Amino acid sequence: MSDYVIDAPAVVALPVAGSDRRFPVRRVYCIGRNYAAHAIEMGHDPDREPPFFFQKNADNLDPSGTFPYPPNTSDVHHEAEIAVMLKTGGTNIAVDDALEHVFGYALALDMTRRDLQGEQKKLGRPWEIGKAFERSAPVGPIHPVAAVGHPSAGRIALSVNGEVRQEGDLNQMIWKVPEMIAYLSEYFELAAGDVILSGTPSGVGPVRKGDEMVIEADGLGSMTVSVA
What we know:
six-stranded mixed β-sheet; globular; about 230 residues; alpha+beta; Fumarylacetoacetate hydrolase, domain 2
């Protein structure tokens, strides 16, 4: 007999490149406006102000390669990102020690209902309705640090139907991965299974049903996602 009054939710687990074992997800933290050019295109100052984060849900991460166009929106945007997967955590982690907590990296998309997000911004309300909807974070296989190291520079790009929309370099991140981990650990107790989406370069834009998105980054290969 189960100890629960309802069926327990399934564990969200992502594939690991070169392994039959999977990575269980605990929380998903997303940094906003972490590339200067993207901050500018969104109408903000690119100076190095304190970082800010919002959250998606663990089951928003989707490795299927298909993105279902969501309801109640007419303006869904792509945001190409690198996801950072933690194997350990803690509080008040020093910047110099932060990378010791990383299991690996993956390609990811922070799909955004931009019209709904914009409405919430005007009202001073949270962004979840624009950011944390079902299957809003397509993600590729996780590449362990043992295989790829810690990517800190190199091209990241996204194309839609063969046309390059986003292109940047990982070294253009305003807040680097160790700094993100250290900052988050001052406000949250990080733990194994936590995922950090590290921001997107400029060029975000809309997708439509039938589009094909391809995201690629040096050292992490490419990922194709179809808009259903």
